[in-house]
Design goal:
- The structure is a single chain.
- This protein is mainly β and 982 residues long.
- 9% of the residues lie in helices and 48% in strands.
- The strands form twelve sheets. The protein has a 22-stranded antiparallel barrel. A five-stranded mixed beta sheet has the order 6-11-12-7-8. Strands 21-20-19-26-25 form a five-stranded antiparallel beta sheet.
- It starts with a strand and ends with a strand.
- 47% of the residues are buried.
- The N terminus is likely disordered.
């Protein structure tokens, strides 16, 4: 179908400048020209991201970053995650294949999240050809609530025409979730010809090899009334172990020379040896040596007899002899953290991934004014990861009978902590699938453009891992028959207490309690819309008024189904010692808290309208003044309805300078997992000021259908300056205020609040969400619900420079984009505010009640969060490219500023500090050459190196020694790309 057109004798120079600026930021957003019989330029109306109105020029009122297909090729990116890293406005990426936590309750596999402005996952709307992408089925915990994201790896990056990033609130245009901005993927819809692309890369010194194959073809048929295009891709990346990186090989960072002495060393002992900062000790106290308790011996653990502390065998009823294991003895008390287990010895650092993508688009001209179009998308990925076998949770402690075959103590034994390493590592396999089908009609009628489509999309995830069935494990430990009995009293490696367990049990016994635990998750999106647009509904003195309106209906669903061993269908039971208060919150999967199955759906109806209004034209200092007005209404079947407006101004002073500003109100509906979740149980180590101990505290979290949408107000203003046709400079300031952010009061804060209330009223019951029990008055559970918390204020500024230079030695292109975060302030909720005020009050008695071992417990997550925990002040990407005939080359520089790691404290004198994670700078380079026709026609070779300097990620107090949501573990990486067009 031929697009509707209008005639213009001339486009204002700055309008072209703005389009050039967008293209300079890597976009191919522009106008398509054709020559009419009178010699006038015929300009097709186009859609610009941030507006539904098809116009003949872009006013440049909104800040947009665009990445063209050529820029994608030059970046060397082979995945959506790598492509997003090119955008300085992308914040920390919580969903990533190197995420440390990576448990069954996390989104694992081939998934990467969107987080514009660092506002958090879920605040960025993702579109494919202007319509929503289905959300990935997996959830991740942010601010202690489950969040979801579209998956950046769903689309093949080499099949993209461009990626458009609207860095402005756009809920009034596109609906819920467009709080921080919008990312729109435009796929090649008019491709003619065929091409094949082969990319192979390898990281120096590791097994991380990558193969990426892509192909595309497109052609017209049916007398050129129909067009069909396909693109397909295959990607494979090898898994690497943490042991392949020096900074990630051990979770024990004490003595690491990359930390300054004042951070890593707190003092010296009597012999002058350094005392290392305990915050850097990432060893886990649950080990294959085991920690136990009996009525006679109290709490004790096993250890090599070469260590100090072995008890005299006569004092312990000769337990050392009874163990019957050479080199192993009993030491009273809990396992020292210095002798903990090094989990990194069995962990993969990055997942192995195998991925396939397919995309097809059909267009067919029904009449001169009507076109039928259809899309089909399919994505499949398998990811593999390895983790250490986990230990039992506090809620999974159980009793070993006195007559158990391997029990050497002649009395019942309580198993408190044990890590069955000899069962082998957890092998995690995640299969992700998604598909999308769409069909629609579009055309024009009486100068109105109209478009209507129906789409259905579905995504599924199967997460499977080999785990230990706690009840069967206890049965094996309690067996009186050697052939079926499991020995937890044989210790581990006497020569290396922190790694492995060579003592072993028979494989047949191990097989008796191993099971596969599966988590099946699913999301759906069904959508119908109808929209109309007219660039000139009526005329004002300054020009034509444009208008767009539309309605949309969508259905969203979420489902999360787990194996019965994990979804509370089966509950943990101490088969020897009987039921305990905490058993109702324990699963039969060793080391995992139970999570009930959850499902939910919602229907959303929305309607919007938009005006593009030319206010002034051709006046002194006002070459052109345009306004955009928009409003959108959305009604949710579960959380109510909402109406939000937007206004934007573009003031073109002259051919060289433009100012722009916008005001937008936005909203984000609570995610379905936040609404439908019930009794999600998690165990985390917490400081309990009532018992003056630190232990695993059970927290039970639930969603609520009374949650309100998160609302926002955003304001942006900036300028575009183009002093010459080949130089463009932009700067945009922005600020955003969010209210009713969905979150959870930290369980540590709830415990401190419990202590505060008990101090104020000694006879009272303390915090009602904290349940205590037993002789030791330990916490049985903290029952916490998701709630709308306090306001958040965020602000920053974006800069960009684009400069093109043609010389006798070829053409040069310089690009720079930078984002500065100037404010990120999270107000504290009422309970957190009371606890903080109590800690700062100076009341000695009150402070004592809120202290753990004479140290105040840090309250995080509120206050000024700029340069804290993955929120650097500055991010920047710059590049210089060169072309000359068949040759091309480029150099790229990336910079990420430093930030505080709030989990790492240190002192200088009497002053306390938080550790500052260093900044990161990396260079990439490439060179390409198009082969002459006499050798191989239409073939382009590219050779590139990423991270030329082999820079390590800045060291941080994290399990892998760096923050994977901000930095990459990729070292010096060589790649070769061959592109052949047919």
């Amino acid at each position: 179908m031929k697009q509707s057109s209008v005639y213009k004798h001339k486009l204002k120079h700055l309008s072209l400048c703005v389009i050039s600026a967008l293209a300079a930021q890597a976009g191919s957003i522009g106008l398509v020209y054709a020559q009419d019989v009178a010699g006038e330029k015929k300009v097709e109306r186009i859609s610009i991201i941030g507006s539904h109105i098809k116009v003949n020029h872009d006013t440049g009122a909104l800040p947009v970053t665009a990445i063209s297909a050529e820029d994608i090729e030059n970046s060397g990116a082979v995945s959506g995650a790598e492509l997003l890293a090119e955008i300085p406005q992308q914040g920390d990426v919580a969903f990533n294949s190197s995420r440390v936590v990576g448990g069954v309750n996390d989104a694992r596999g081939d998934v990467s999240s969107y987080n514009l402005r660092g506002l958090g996952t879920g605040n960025t709307l993702v579109l494919l050809n202007g319509r929503r992408l289905v959300l990935h089925p997996g959830t991740q915990s942010e601010n202690f609530v489950p969040v979801t994201t579209a998956n950046a790896n769903t689309l093949p990056v080499r099949g993209l025409k461009r990626v458009e990033v609207l860095r402005d609130g756009a809920a009034a245009i596109y609906g819920s979730d467009a709080v921080a901005g919008v990312v729109n993927y435009a796929l090649k819809d008019d491709y003619e010809g065929s091409e094949l692309n082969v990319n192979y890369g390898s990281e120096e010194g590791t097994a991380r090899d990558t193969l990426n194959l892509n192909g595309a073809t497109g052609f017209y048929f049916n007398n050129e009334k129909s067009h069909l295009s396909f693109s397909a891709g295959y990607y494979k990346r090898e898994m690497i172990m943490a042991s392949e990186k020096s900074y990630a090989a051990s979770s024990d960072l004490r003595g690491n020379s990359r930390f300054p002495d004042e951070v890593g060393i707190t003092g010296t002992d009597d012999d002058g040896n350094p005392i290392y900062n305990s915050d850097l000790n990432g060893l886990n106290s649950s080990t294959p040596w085991g920690e136990f308790r009996t009525s006679t011996l109290g709490t004790f653990h096993l250890q090599p007899d070469s260590l100090s502390g072995c008890e005299n065998s006569d004092d312990l009823g000769n337990p050392t002899t009874a163990l019957g294991v050479e080199g192993v003895c009993v030491d009273q008390g809990s396992q020292p953290t210095s002798d903990g287990y090094d989990r990194n010895s069995e962990r993969s650092l990055s997942s192995g991934i195998e991925r396939a993508n397919f995309y097809g688009l059909l267009t067919h001209e029904l009449t001169e004014s009507t076109e039928l179009y259809a899309e089909a998308l399919y994505y499949y990925a398998e990811a593999e990861r390895v983790r250490e076998q986990t230990a039992n949770l506090t809620s999974q402690r159980f009793t070993i009978a006195a007559d158990a075959y391997y029990n050497p103590f002649g009395e019942t034994v309580d198993l408190r902590k044990y890590r069955p390493v000899d069962t082998g590592p957890r092998n995690i396999e995640v299969t992700d699938k998604s598909y999308r089908v769409l069909t629609g009609l579009r055309g024009d009628f009486n100068d109105w453009d109209w478009d209507s489509a129906v789409l259905y999309s579905k995504a599924t995830t199967e997460d499977k891992a080999n785990r230990i069935h706690t009840q069967r494990f206890q049965q094996a430990i309690n067996s009186t028959d050697q052939a079926t009995a499991y020995d937890v009293f044989n210790g581990a490696d006497v020569n290396n207490t922190n790694v492995g367990d060579p003592t072993g049990n028979s494989q047949s016994v191990i097989d008796s309690f191993m099971i596969d635990v599966v988590r099946d998750s699913e999301t759906e999106l069904a959508l119908f819309d109808f929209k109309v647009s007219k660039g000139d509904i009526y005329e004002l003195p300054a020009g034509d008024v444009g208008f767009a309106a539309g309605i949309e209906y969508r259905y969203e669903s979420f489902s999360d189904v787990r194996s019965d061993e994990l979804n509370t269908s089966e509950s943990f039971l101490d088969i020897v010692g009987g039921v305990k208060d905490v058993d109702q919150y324990a699963s039969v999967v060793l080391g995992s808290s139970p999570t009930p199955d959850a499902s939910g759906s919602r229907n959303v109806f929305s309607a919007y309208s938009e005006f593009a209004i030319p206010l002034l034209e051709g006046l002194p200092f006002v070459d052109r003044l345009d306004m955009q007005l928009a409003a959108r209404y959305e009604r949710f079947s579960d959380v109510g309805d909402i109406l939000k407006p937007k206004a934007a101004l573009s003031w073109i002073i002259n051919d060289y300078v433009q100012f722009r500003a916008s005001y937008a109100e936005g909203f984000k509906a609570p995610g379905l997992p936040q609404v439908v979740a019930v009794d999600i149980s998690r165990v985390n180590n917490r400081n309990d000021p009532i018992t003056d101990t630190r232990y695993g505290v059970l927290e039970v979290r639930s969603g609520s259908d009374t949650l309100k949408p998160e609302e926002s107000e955003s304001l942006s203003w900036g300028f575009v300056v183009q002093p010459t046709r080949n130089l463009t400079l932009t700067a945009d300031w922005w600020q955003l205020d969010q209210s009713d952010t969905v979150g959870l009061i930290h369980s540590q804060t709830q415990l401190l609040y419990d202590a505060l209330l008990r101090h104020q009223d000694p006879g009272g019951n303390g915090n009602p969400v904290v349940t205590r029990g037993g002789d030791d008055n330990e916490v049985v559970a903290v029952v916490n619900d998701y709630i709308n918390l306090q306001d958040r204020e965020v602000a920053g500024v974006d800069f960009s420079i684009s400069y093109d230079l043609d010389t006798n030695w070829g053409g040069f292109q310089f690009r720079a984009n930078a984002a500065k975060l100037t404010k990120f302030y999270q107000e504290a909720d009422d309970i957190t505010a009371q606890v903080i005020a109590a800690q700062n009050s100076g009341d000695a008695a009150l402070i004592e009640a809120l202290q753990y071992r004479e140290e105040e417990v840090t309250i995080t997550g509120s206050g000024d969060l700029v340069e804290q925990d993955g929120r650097p002040e500055w991010r920047m990407t710059s590049s210089i490219g060169w072309k000359n005939g068949s040759w091309g080359a480029g150099l790229k520089y990336r910079y990420v500023g430093g930030f505080e790691d709030t989990s790492l404290d240190y002192s200088i004198g009497e002053e306390d500090f938080k550790y500052q994670v260093g900044s990161s700078s990396k260079f990439d380079v490439y060179v390409n050459y198009r082969l002459p026709e006499s050798v191989l026609d239409n073939t382009k070779l590219t050779f590139g190196i990423k991270n030329i300097g082999d820079k390590k990620p800045p060291i941080a107090d994290e399990t892998f020694g760096y923050n994977s949501s901000v930095h990459s573990s990729l070292g010096r990486y060589f790649y070769m790309n061959v592109n052949k067009k047919f």
